[in-house]
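Q: Sequence in, structure out?
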Amino acid sequence: MLLAGDVGGTKTRLAIFSSPDEIRTPIAEATLPSASYPNLETLVQSFLAQIAVPIERASFGVAGPVIAGKATITNLLWEMDELQMQTALHIPVVKLLNDLGAMAHGIPSLNASDIYTLNEGTTVSHGTIALIAPGTGLGEAFLTWNGSSYNAYPSEGGHTDFGPTNALEISLLQYLLQKIEHVSYEHVCSGIGIPNLYYFLRNQNDALQEPPWLAQQIAQAHDITPHIVQAALDTQRPCELCSTTLTMFTAILGAETGNLALKTLSTGGVYIGGGIPPRMLSFFQDGAFMRAFQRKGRLSEVLVTMPVHIILNTQLALIGAALHGFENNK
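A: Exactly. Output:
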């Protein structure tokens, strides 16, 4: 039996699998709030206490860099060590991998119902594949063909310097530099980045007023991002401030996705993962994302031909972590 996990700063998904042939039908699964536990071991123990199944291996995709079998969650103060977890959990083999590496492992298993296509493009057989995922943070990864299958490579590209592409984004960078020493793409196109855009637009543009009902919700919320997204999508009670925030978000994400596509020359396709994009498809459909993605000067024509897909399957990182576990069991 294999225990797989998708460990994020907000929530952790766990599932038990019996074989790679049943990768979409786990024996047991649960989603737990990460911040409610002092460490991953305690969270896993809480899950396993409800299930009388002996676990032989575990594979966890974690939201942070994994170096020499050790990792720290970028947006949660958890420290993880494969050997220590083997002892604490009484599991013979425990493997950690970056969460985007886990998601990348799952991309070859995607089917048509798992994706929404923004740009059909032309897929080059065995071409490099790029993956970007705005969730709590911003993750990036890529896959290359080794002659018989794809190898997945994680990165920390979401923490690279934010590069504005127009006057409004230059003003955004200047605004954030007054508050943050280093402004990365994660600060402007992720779950923790959306509030930065919202406050910038609210404070810099008198025409974009914050509705009193939303101000009350935000004042009482620990995480205001869901409220901003929900208000932007509410057709009965439109909020121009929130819709402008998400339009800016998709444009910046489009530009950075284009950067990643150029750096990896992802002729095999570009995939957008994470929990945010499927919740706001209409903002990707309005064209702002693809215009920013393709606006690369002399190389724009290269990006026009690249397939671009939004991943709708929110379990992909968990599936990828499980596939990684089974692959390493051979």
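The mean pLDDT is 94.
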